[in-house]
Design brief:
The chain is α+β, with helices and mostly antiparallel strands and about 325 residues long. It contains 12 helices and 8 strands. Bound molecules: adenine.
């Protein structure tokens, strides 16, 4: 894979995954190899979100474990987030072979729910808050959740979303100004700040205050992080997007920064660099790295297994060429 595509799912469509996407989207395939809610045993809740839960489930066909992201159609429609959901599904279909993006195996719908069947990343979350950066059992990062990708990040759904979590959003997004790909480099800076300092930049427990801080307050970087680390953060978290690192040459500028001087990018993408932390995972269904706040929740019942009745989302259902 071209290392330029790292963190750029929309441009990383390989021939193979394109072929898979084409293959699985024919009506004939969907008829011949349906996957439905009844094909899984639902074991535990391993995550929650505004649209539903993520469940650990076992596929009866092959006894493998998967994380199934369950989204409630009623809530999606109420929040006018159909675009976000289809965007997430489309990004997952397009990025099947990316080393650090969660892999989609199937998606199906019931009368009331949309379901994305993903690899189970058993290593848990990287940090307390960047909950969409998971570790697999080998310690490699796995990014999950693409509901706010480029096409999704417009209109009312976004307005509602950033009312909830402004931590990682660039000032221009919060101010509903024009924005471009450089919002991702701000987001990288915000997540890296949290990893290095323990809290996102401009943090306040008062969300409205934090919103004001992100837009108006200058960045203050305390002691405890290397000079290079601070320089990298300062350049990523530039409020002026035209001067932000990545504004001119995108990923190239990021890769060239001294913060990454020890990284051999081709080896990284080929997963040849041993992860610095390997989680303790005893088997494919090990839940010890998953937050007990999730696993304690009751597993919801799937009583609405019929796909035909109810609100349908055309083109949502999907079967990966290599997963059945
Ligand atoms: N939480 C959200 N997505 C997940 C996944 N794919 N594996 C484990 N936990 C998750």
């Amino acid at each position: 894979m071209d290392p330029e595509c790292f963190l750029r799912p929309e441009v990383s469509l390989s021939d193979e995954s394109a072929a898979a996407a084409r293959f699985t989207n024919t009506a004939q395939d969907r008829q011949n190899c349906r996957v439905s809610a009844a094909d899984f045993d639902y074991l535990k809740v391993i995550g929650t979100g505004s649209f539903g839960e993520v469940l650990l489930a076992k596929y009866k066909e092959n006894n493998r474990y998967y994380a199934i992201k369950v989204l409630k159609k009623r809530i999606i429609l109420k929040k006018e987030a159909e675009g976000n959901v289809m965007c997430e599904r489309n990004v997952l279909v397009k990025t099947l072979n990316h080393p650090f993006l969660v892999r989609l195996h199937f998606s199906f719908q019931t009368k009331e729910r949309l379901c994305l069947v993903l690899d189970y990343a058993s290593g848990g979350e990287v940090d307390l808050k960047p909950e969409n950066i998971l570790l697999n059992s080998e310690g490699h990062v796995v990014l999950t959740d693409f509901g706010l990708c480029k096409e999704g990040i417009v209109g009312r759904a976004t307005t509602k979303t950033f009312c909830g979590t402004p931590e990682y959003l660039a000032p221009e997004v919060l101010q509903q100004q024009e924005y471009d790909r450089t919002v991702d480099w701000w987001g990288l800076g915000a997540v890296l700040h949290e990893m290095l300092y323990g809290l996102p930049p401009f943090y306040s427990a008062d969300r409205i205050k934090m919103l004001g801080n992100i837009i108006y307050q200058p960045l203050v970087l305390e002691a405890g992080v290397s000079k290079t680390g601070k320089d990298f953060l300062k350049r990523l978290l530039n409020k002026d997007r035209s001067k932000r690192l990545g504004a001119k040459h995108d990923m190239d500028e990021i890769k060239r920064h001294a913060f990454f001087s020890s990284i051999h990018w081709d080896d990284l993408v080929a997963k040849k660099i041993p992860p610095p932390f390997v989680p303790t995972v005893t088997g494919p269904d090990d839940l010890t790295n998953i937050n007990p706040a999730f696993t304690r929740l009751p597993v919801p019942e799937f009583t609405d297994v019929c796909e035909e009745a109810g609100l349908t989302f055309p083109d949502f259902s999907y079967i990966s060429a290599t997963s059945y």
